[in-house]
Amino acid sequence: MTHDLVTTLGPLLTAEASAEAHATGTEPGDLEQAVWLRLLELLETQGPPLDPHGWLRRAVRAESRRTRRTTRLERPYGVEPADDADHTPEHLALASARRRALRDAVRRLPGRCPRLMEALLSPRDLTYREIAGELGMSQGSLGPERSRCLGCLRRLLTPEVAARGARG
Fold first, then answer.
1. Residue 51 region, left (φ>0) first, then alpha (ψ -120 to 50), else beta?
2. pTM greater than 0.70 (yes/no)
């Protein structure tokens, strides 16, 4: 049954995600991945939707709205904290402590997250294609996986970092 749904809905999902992705500022593949995940969750809890095509269209739009809301809440830092020109001994010690805390938190992440975050933080500045090859996963799943890992990392660091308002 699942295979039939994937085969039937695949082209429609590709078209819908391509049409919606531009407005959300995301990659169509990331949007597709999120909707496939929603479908799998639905199949596990409630079974197949009565109107698969209608469900898919609604799911793509709902995921697009969620992505737009998330994008609106995330703001870049006004100044890059790592680029602070102050190289006093105190500053260097604090910067080193922040890096250590980040690396420690990354090591405590579940599943593939530590390897993914290490690859993303690598000084080699790897592309998504290179990271996907190193981790043995599809390039299209990196975005959603990265989002989940960053959410976990944010929860781990919340007690350690005072977070006010929207974050970047």
1. beta
2. no
Q: Which long-range contacts (CB under 8 A, 24 or more apart) does 8-13 make?
A: 8/52, 9/39, 9/52, 9/53, 9/56, 12/53, 12/56, 12/57, 13/56, 13/60
Task: State the Cα angle at 110 between 121 and 81, rounded to 5°.
Answer: 30
The closest of 151, 131, 155, 156 to 141, measured between CA atoms, is 131
CA dist 43 → 1, 37, 74, 79, 153 (Å): 10, 10, 31, 45, 29
Q: How far apart are CA 33 and CA 67, in angstroms?
A: 13
Give the tens place of pLDDT for each residue, 105-149.
899 999 889 999 988 888 888 888 889 888 998 888 888 899 889
Distance (Å, whole) CA 84 – CA 77: 12
Q: What is the torsion angle, in degrees rounded to the nearest 10, for the CA atoms of residue 80, residue 83, residue 85 and residue 87? A: 120
